[in-house]
Amino acid sequence: MTQRFTQPPRGNLKPLRIVAAGLLTGLLCSSAWSYTYEERQEKDFSQYTVTDPDASYFDVSARMALLDDTSNSLLLGQMDRLQITDNCTSLMATPPLDERIRIPGFYPSPDAWREATRPLFNFEDDVSRLAGAYVATQNDYYSECLIKFLNKWAEANALWKFYYSPHDPQAWYSTESMMFAAALAYSIVRPRIEGMEEKKQHIDDWLSSLAKRHSAIPGSSGDCCNNHFYRRALYASMIGVLTDDDALFQYGVSAVYSALSDLTPEGGLPHELTRGRRATHYQNYALLYLVTNMQVIARQGYDIFNLEIDGLTIQDPVTYLFQIIDDPTRLEDYAPHEQYHGFLNDDQYFSWMEIYLHHKDYPRMERFLKQYRPLNNRSAGGYITLYFMAPEAQQRIVLNDSNKQRSGITIPDSPE
């Protein structure tokens, strides 16, 4: 029997090619994924099942053992900063977001967006920091606090009342990252805490219901299939693992197949290349969630980093990213060659590269990352350098004009 997966994205996933000398004035389409919505419902991913519900997105025990024995000054410095974090009493005083969440759009109203998203970002920072403090200290105080903190939100059925319409999707977008921030952090501590079973079951049920409700919204012609689909896939994969839910897990896998099937011959992600002057930024932004999702899938025993569709693998969009960073003319007619490069000043956008280097040897990426480490992403994995960097890769923070202030937690100043 064909295995169905939780509501897949609606719409055409055909690659888009911008014509008219770098302006977004026309589209040409061709792809192996030219399925209708109904046909996509029947796409079979039944070969992908959850094999280990206790597997986090990295081997927590192995990493703790390595950190116990490391002399790497960069890793030790990050561990030292995590020795002192918020006490549990103050965190438990944070009210859950149990009322209707409505967020203004970033681009039309950036100041209002920043104010409205502050409590959402605080939640992401809190759960990621507690998980990081646990890994750095191996002190159950932090892991138990994380369980109690998430249970409080579960008891309040927080995040359930997000507002959504196709013309006002920002709350739908913003809750994506809260869900995978919680799931990724929770996956680090859940199997290592004895007891607290009722609280853990409550959290499992809460995350599962949120994931199913959130992913049941197919989105519009854009966010059905672009980086927001990859973000939904990230929470679906991790929550699918935590709750042993093959349907959610397969939803997460489907995004990887969709992305690779969409690629232009050069390796561009077409839905991101339509962003004009921000095409390079969004090519990277999409990879942030694709690669992190692939890491979750790989931890279930699947060779997803070598998955090939129509002769293309994840290496192709990665290579293309560095090509268009180094030489924007490689964008050809897909997007304007005068690209926004402000994202290059924010290390949170490159946490996925630490994961990628865990699987692939890529000297160009290694050189690139040395100017940004240690990397932290408040939602997509937390303290990624602490969890993934090989100790021999880098010993010290490289200080330059663009990263002198980036030695701790990133302060968000851009939209999801």
Structure in words:
With 416 residues, the chain is mainly α. It has one domain (37-388): Glycosyltransferase, CATH 1.50.10. The chain has helices spanning 37-41, 60-69, 73-81, 88-92, 110-137, 140-155, 170-189, 197-215, 227-242, 246-262, 270-273, 279-298, 315-326, 351-357, 363-369, 384-388. α6 packs antiparallel against α7 (170-189), α7 (170-189) runs antiparallel to α8 (197-215) and α12 (279-298) crosses α14 (351-357). The longest helix has 28 residues, at 110-137. It starts with 36 loop residues before the first helix and ends in a 28-residue tail after the last helix. The model is unreliable at 1-39 and 404-416 (pLDDT under 50).
The CATH topology is: Glycosyltransferase
Oligomer: single chain
Indicate the CATH class: Mainly Alpha
Shape: globular
Report the total helices.
16
Strand count: 0
Structural class: mainly alpha
**Number of domain units:** 1
Q: Which sheet architecture does the biggest sheet show?
A: none
Helix % is 40-55%
N/C terminus separation = 38 Å
CATH homology-level superfamily: Chondroitin AC/alginate lyase
- What is the arithmetic mean of pLDDT? 87
Order of helices and strands: HHHHHHHHHHHHHHHH
